[in-house]
């Protein structure tokens, strides 16, 4: 089914008066109140705020997707608001927030909830979508614009619904210093290795970096530190600009396509004790599914 089929004109506001995202959420909830829908709005706002504290739902590109799974509702609500002037507050890419998509679902719903979030995000990633949304004049135009994007809601939860689209990567020509810098900066334990066409080649992780300093680690475990006549990490620091990713990375990685079922991805992770699975489309790296994200998104919400 098309994402547009789940949108309602009565739940679209083409001219938000609010100046902040929090106020915009309250303004959107006001549309449900105006419909005569009786809900515990205080509980809903608390759930949305709690979710924002876990992670900022401002997506970038001018879009924000505040959402909550809460027992205060017994059906799914999708509300969309447009701020013509842009909302106040910092954003990750410096583009002011203009589009606020609010999603509320019961705690018993997981699949449709994640697919809706994923579908709305796909609409937001469409080139030129922000400019087109800001130019529309009627609510029907907004729904038609979303319909023309041909974003579909699938019957099953797929990898593309939970994957991260921004994947930190390095090339075989990068140095171990660059690897360590990226891991530290982004708090990562592993990086994708790609060629200059973004084709996935393999992975380099923190274990590989440590092994570069301790190539004879098995002997060290058996004989103890007295088997060394030098400080291995000091030696590694001396050579950090000389050791290339090509000398470290491994090709034994698990990959899936964006259309892979999340249950199958999760099963692979359990079977092989994987923290991450890369998502590729025609061998090009397009995303990553992290084990912690399956917990956070599917279970925690």
Automatic annotation (TrEMBL):
Keywords: CBS domain
SMART domains xref list: CBS (SM00116)
InterPro entries documented for this protein: CBS_dom, CBS_dom_sf, Diverse_CBS-Domain, PTrfase/Anion_transptr, PTS_EIIA_type-2_dom
Domain of life: Bacteria
A Pfam family: CBS
Statement: the UniProt record of this protein carries the keyword Metal-binding: no
Gene3D superfamilies recorded: CBS-domain, Mannitol-specific EII, Chain A
Domain PTS EIIA type-2 residue range list: 5-149
PROSITE patterns in alphabetical order: CBS (PS51371), PTS_EIIA_TYPE_2 (PS51094)
Start and end residues of each CBS domain: 163-223, 249-301
Matching PANTHER family: CBS DOMAIN-CONTAINING PROTEIN, CBS DOMAIN-CONTAINING PROTEIN CBSX3, MITOCHONDRIAL
Record-given protein name: CBS domain-containing protein
Source organism per UniProt: candidate division GN15 bacterium
